[in-house]
Design goal:
By secondary structure, this protein is of the alpha/beta class. It is 31% helix and 25% strand. The protein binds coenzyme A and adenosine monophosphate. This is Propionyl-CoA synthetase.
C-alpha cells in the first residue's frame, strides 16, 4: 500500500488512534484523555477534556522554544506603501497587552468579540487576543455593507467590536467607522464598546462608546492565556447559506489546532522557520486557517498581504512577494491568477524575480479550471495543487498530499480525500454511485477534527443544513464524482451558493434584497459563468402590475440596493426586467434552466414547465442585453 493509502485507511478505520497521534503535534496544558466523543445529536466532538490555548500554542510556546526573534508576521501593504515585521516575541507581547485591554473592557471566556478589520497585523493581534482570553471572535470581511455587519452583530451578540478606522483598496480609502456605527444602529444587540485602530490614511472620529486602540494598549496589563477545553469554541465565522441569513460556523479549539498542524505537514509540507504565504483575507476561512493560525502553530513565518494580485502595482505582485520573503509554499484563489493572466498572458513579469524558493503552489476557493491550471503548470517549475474545502471544514477535504506522498496531478481534479475525510458520492436516494458517476459529495461521519461543531445559536439549522439530507453523512453542498483512479472532481454547488472571485455568496440572499423593493413582484438571481471571477450574479425581475417607472431606472436601483445591503463584493452589476419567468406548474422558478441559457448551453423545455413561451422571452432578453453567453444558447 502507498504511504497515502496506508495513512488514509488508518485515519478511517482507527480514527481515535490516528488523531491521538496527531494531537501530540501541539502543546496542551492537559493532554486529552478522551479523543473522540459523540454529542446527543450524534455529531463528533474531538479532544473534549484536553486543555490548551491556541494563543499559547502558536505564540508563547514558540518563544519558550527559542523562536522569539524569528519573524512571525511579515506585513506587506503596497496600498499604503508600508512594510512591517513582527517577531514571535513582539507578537506575543502585543497579543498579551491587547488581551489585557479587552479584559479591561469586561471581555471574559465565552464572550464574543466582532472584528471588522482589513489586512493589518492588528487584525491578527485582535484574533489571538480573544483566543488568549477564551473569548470567541467573529471576523467580518471588510467588503460587507452595514446591513451584513448588523446581521452578524445581532446574531453573535458581541460584548466588544474591534475595528480599524479604514480599509484601503486600490486607489481608495474606505472609512470603516460609519459602517460600524450604522451596523450597531441597525442591530438590536448593542455592544458595550468599540475599539478603533486608527490608521493614518483616515482617522475616525470617536464617540462615547469608542476607545482608541493605541491608548488602550499603552495602559493595558498583559493578560495570561486562559486554559480552554479542546471542544470550547475559538471562533464563529459567518458564511452564505441558501437563505438570506448567513450561517455562523462554530469552530472548536483543540480539534482545529490539531487538524491545522497536521495539514501544514501532510499537505503544505512546511517546516518550522519556513515562510508560508496565503493571499486571502482574514475575513475568510482561508485567512483564519492559513494566514492567522496554521503558519504560527507550525512555527513558520506568515506573510500578511494588503494588496491585490494586479494593480498593486502590477501583475508581478505575487512573484515579488514570493521572491522578497523567500516563500516556500504559496496559496491563493484561481481567480487571482486569471486576473494576472489577463494582464500578463505570457507571464513575462515572472522573469524579473527569483522564485527558486517556491516549492509548491496551492489553489482553492473555487475549482481550478483546467485552462488556468495549464497556464500555471507551463509557467512554473513547481507542483500546482488544486485542493477543495469549505468554511465549514476549516481545512482541505481533498488535496494532493504534497508533504505525505505527492501524486501525479489531473487537471480539474482536487486529487484525493485528505486522511480523516471519508468522502463518498451519493445519488438522490442516498445510494453510493460508482466511478465517473456524478452525485452529491458527502462526508461519512465522523468528520475529522477541525470541522464545524455547530451553527451559532441554532443547533436545528446545523442538523437541517448539513446532516438531515443523508443520515450519517455531512452534506457538502457540492456535486462531483470519483474517476476510475480514485481522483475526486468537484463540479460545483448543488444549491444557491455561488462563488464570485473566490468569495462565497448566496443568490437567495440577493433575491431577498431585490424582492423587498416595492416595485418588484417576482425575481430570480442566478450565478452565471464569468471568465475572470468564475461566476457573477445576474438578476431577473418582474415588476408589479401598474409599475410606471422606467425599467432602466429600476434596474439601476436594484443594483445599487444590493451593493448597499450586501456590499460591493456582491458584484451584482446586471438586472434585467422581464415579463415572465420560466416556472414549473407548482410555481418553482427554473433557475438551472436560466443558468444554462445565460451560459450559452443547449437547453430543453422541461415537461413540468407552466408557460413554455416564458423561456423564449428570457432568452431574448438575455441575448439583447448580452448577458453571459446567452447569444450562443440553443433550444433543443
Ligand atoms: N473591503 C472593502 N471593499 C472591498 C474589499 C474589502 N476588503 N474587497 C473588495 N472590495 C470591493 C472592491 O473595491 C470592489 O468595489 P468596486 O465595485 O467599488 O470596484 C468590489 O468589492 C469587488 O472587488 P473584487 O472582487 O476584489 O474585484 P476586482 O475587480 O477589484 O478584482 C480580483 C478582481 C480577481 C483581482 C479580486 O477579486 C481578487 O483579488 N480576488 C481574489 C480573492 C481571494 O483571494 N479570495 C480568497 C478566497 S481563498
Ligand atoms: P468557502 O466556504 O467560501 O470556502 O466556499 C466553499 C465552496 O467553494 C465549496 O463548497 C466549493 O463549492 C467551492 N470550492 C472551494 N474550493 C474548491 C476547489 N478546489 N474545487 C472546487 N470547488 C471549490
Amino acid at each position: 500500500m502507498s504511504t497515502y493509502a496506508n495513512e488514509f485507511r488508518r485515519s478511517i478505520d482507527q480514527p481515535e488512534a490516528f488523531w491521538a497521534e496527531q494531537a501530540r503535534r501541539i502543546p496542551w496544558f492537559t493532554p486529552p484523555s478522551t479523543i473522540l466523543e459523540y454529542d446527543e445529536a450524534n455529531h463528533a466532538r474531538w479532544f473534549v477534556d484536553g486543555e490548551m490555548n491556541i494563543s499559547h500554542a502558536a505564540l508563547d510556546h514558540h518563544v519558550e522554544q527559542g523562536r522569539g526573534d524569528q519573524p512571525a508576521i511579515l506585513w506587506d501593504s503596497p496600498v499604503t506603501d508600508s512594510k512591517r515585521t513582527l517577531t514571535y516575541r513582539e507578537m506575543r507581547d502585543q497579543v498579551a497587552s491587547f488581551a489585557g485591554a479587552l479584559k479591561g473592557l469586561g471581555v471574559e471566556k465565552g464572550d464574543r468579540v466582532v472584528i471588522y478589520m482589513p489586512m493589518v497585523p492588528e487584525a491578527l493581534v485582535a484574533m489571538y487576543a480573544c483566543a488568549r482570553l477564551g473569548a470567541v471572535h467573529s471576523v467580518v470581511f471588510g467588503g460587507f455593507a452595514p446591513h451584513e455587519l448588523a446581521v452578524r452583530i445581532e446574531d453573535a451578540a458581541p460584548k466588544v467590536v474591534v475595528a480599524a478606522s479604514c480599509g484601503v483598496e486600490v486607489n481608495k480609502v474606505l472609512p470603516y467607522k460609519p459602517i460600524i456605527d450604522a451596523a450597531i444602529e441597525q442591530s438590536a444587540h448593542k455592544p458595550d464598546a468599540c475599539v478603533v485602530f486608527q490608521r493614518e490614511q483616515h482617522l475616525a472620529e470617536l464617540g462615547p462608546r469608542d476607545h482608541d486602540w493605541a491608548t488602550l494598549l499603552d495602559a493595558a496589563t498583559p493578560a495570561d492565556c486562559v486554559p480552554v477545553k479542546g471542544s470550547d469554541p475559538l471562533y464563529v465565522l459567518y458564511t452564505s447559506g441558501t437563505t438570506g441569513k448567513p450561517k455562523g460556523v462554530v469552530r472548536d479549539t483543540g480539534g482545529y489546532a490539531v487538524a491545522l498542524a497536521y495539514s501544514m505537514d501532510a499537505i503544505y509540507d512546511v517546516e518550522p522557520g519556513e515562510v508560508f504565504f496565503s493571499a486571502s483575507d482574514v475575513g475568510w476561512v482561508v485567512g483564519h486557517s492559513y494566514i492567522v493560525y496554521a503558519p504560527l502553530l507550525r512555527g513558520c513565518t506568515s506573510v500578511v498581504y494588503e494588496g491585490k494580485p494586479v494593480k498593486t502595482p502590477d501583475a508581478g505582485a505575487f512573484w515579488r512577494l514570493i521572491s522578497e520573503y523567500r516563500v516556500k509554499s504559496f496559496f491563493t484563489a484561481p481567480t487571482a491568477f486569471r486576473a494576472i493572466k489577463k494582464e500578463d498572458p505570457d507571464g513575462k513579469l515572472l522573469a524579473e524575480y527569483d522564485i527558486s524558493c517556491l516549492k509548491a503552489l496551492f489553489l482553492a476557493g473555487e475549482r481550478l479550471d483546467p485552462p488556468t491550471f495549464h497556464w500555471l503548470d507551463d509557467l512554473l517549475d513547481v507542483p500546482v495543487i488544486d485542493h477543495w474545502w469549505q468554511t465549514e471544514t476549516g481545512w482541505p477535504i481533498a488535496a494532493n498530499l504534497h508533504g505525505l506522498e505527492p501524486m501525479p496531478t489531473k487537471a480539474g481534479s482536487a486529487t484525493v480525500p485528505v486522511p480523516g475525510f471519508n468522502v463518498q458520492i451519493l445519488d438522490r436516494e442516498g445510494e453510493q454511485v460508482g466511478p465517473m458517476e456524478q452525485g452529491s459529495v458527502v462526508i461519512k461521519q465522523p468528520m475529522p477534527p477541525g470541522c464545524l461543531v455547530g451553527v451559532w445559536g441554532d443547533p436545528q439549522r446545523f442538523h437541517a443544513a448539513y446532516m438531515a439530507a443523508f443520515p450519517g453523512y455531512y452534506l457538502t453542498g457540492d456535486g462531483g464524482y470519483f474517476d476510475e483512479d480514485g481522483y475526486l472532481f468537484i463540479m460545483g454547488r448543488t444549491d444557491d451558493v455561488i462563488n464570485v472571485a473566490g468569495h462565497r455568496l448566496s443568490t437567495g440572499e440577493m433575491e431577498e434584497v431585490v424582492g423587498a423593493h416595492p416595485a418588484v413582484a417576482e425575481c430570480a438571481v442566478i450565478g452565471i459563468h464569468d471568465a475572470l471571477k468564475g461566476q457573477l450574479p445576474v438578476g431577473l425581475v418582474i415588476p408589479k402590475d401598474g409599475f410606471e417607472g422606467r425599467e432602466a431606472d429600476l434596474e439601476q436601483e436594484l443594483v445599487a440596493l444590493v451593493r448597499e445591503k450586501i456590499g460591493p463584493i456582491a458584484c451584482l452589476k446586471q438586472v434585467l426586467v422581464v415579463d415572465r419567468l420560466p416556472k414549473t406548474r407548482s410555481g418553482k422558478i427554473l433557475r438551472k434552466l436560466l443558468r444554462n441559457i445565460a451560459d450559452g448551453k443547449e437547453y430543453g423545455v422541461p415537461s413540468t414547465i407552466d408557460d413554455p413561451a416564458s423561456l423564449q422571452d428570457v432568452h431574448d432578453a438575455m441575448k439583447a442585453r448580452e448577458v453571459g453567453a446567452a447569444h450562443e444558447a440553443r433550444q433543443v
